[in-house]
Specification:
The protein has 174 residues and is α/β, with parallel strands linked by helices. It is built from four helices and ten strands. The protein has helices at 17-39, 76-83, 95-105, 124-132, and strands at residues 42-45, 50-53, 71-73, 87-91, 110-114, 136-139, 143-148, 154-159, 164-166, 169-172. The strands form three sheets. The chain has a five-stranded parallel sheet with strand order 3-10-4-5-6, with helices on one face. Strands 7-8-9 form a three-stranded antiparallel sheet, with no helix packed on it. A two-stranded antiparallel ribbon has the order 1-2. A hairpin with a 4-residue loop joins strand 1 (42-45) and strand 2 (50-53). The protein is globular and about 65 Å long. The model has no long low-confidence stretch (mean pLDDT 82).
Length: 174
């Protein structure tokens, strides 16, 4: 949390009216954000800025099989735990998806990056890194179904054109 230092020349170390107003504004904003996170099943630590808990309920996609435990939202770390060296799918066309693809490619056999409009809107350094990485394939495609085995674990994804990509997990970075 930011520290408010009294203006020079203030007696007794009292905070200026401006400092108090700013501190109250920061506290209110932090409290509002914490309330939002808590209302969605998580916790927020304003000291570290860390959010914990399952906040997936406001990000879920609505396609057959999307309730699979191998469908994750926002964390390449969670995806890597599920994939464990196998094939992964990441959905998104922004920098967060590109960064997740680069991170996941370190430990995965193949990473399929689904970006309907391509990756041209990402930062140039990411486009260059993704293009040079033999473990990442970019698809201008959309997932219509998550395939699962009898135990409910992900085995692949069906694309809009009917192609089935084998994968052990999918990350929605949208």
């Amino acid at each position: 949390a930011p520290q408010i230092v009294p203006k020079e020349g203030e007696a007794g170390g009292k905070k200026s009216a401006e400092a108090v107003k700013y501190e109250n504004k920061v506290t209110a904003a932090t409290r509002t954000f914490a309330d939002f996170v808590e209302a969605h099943g998580g916790t927020y630590d304003p000291e570290t800025g860390q959010i914990t808990g399952n906040l997936d309920q406001f990000n879920k996609v609505n396609i057959p099989g999307s309730d699979c435990p191998d469908v994750v939202y926002g964390s390449s770390g969670d995806l890597k735990e599920r994939v464990r060296g196998g094939d992964a799918i990441i959905v998104g066309g922004a920098n967060s998806a590109g960064q997740a693809a680069m991170d996941t490619a370190i430990t995965s056999r193949n990473v399929h990056l689904m970006a309907r409009g391509g990756i041209d809107n990402m930062s140039k350094y990411l486009v260059d890194q993704i293009s040079a990485n033999p473990h990442i394939q970019v698809h201008k495609a959309e997932i219509t179904q998550i395939k699962q085995d009898e135990s409910g674990r992900m085995t692949g994804a069906v694309l809009k054109d009917g192609t089935v990509l084998p994968a052990k997990g999918v990350l929605y970075a949208i």
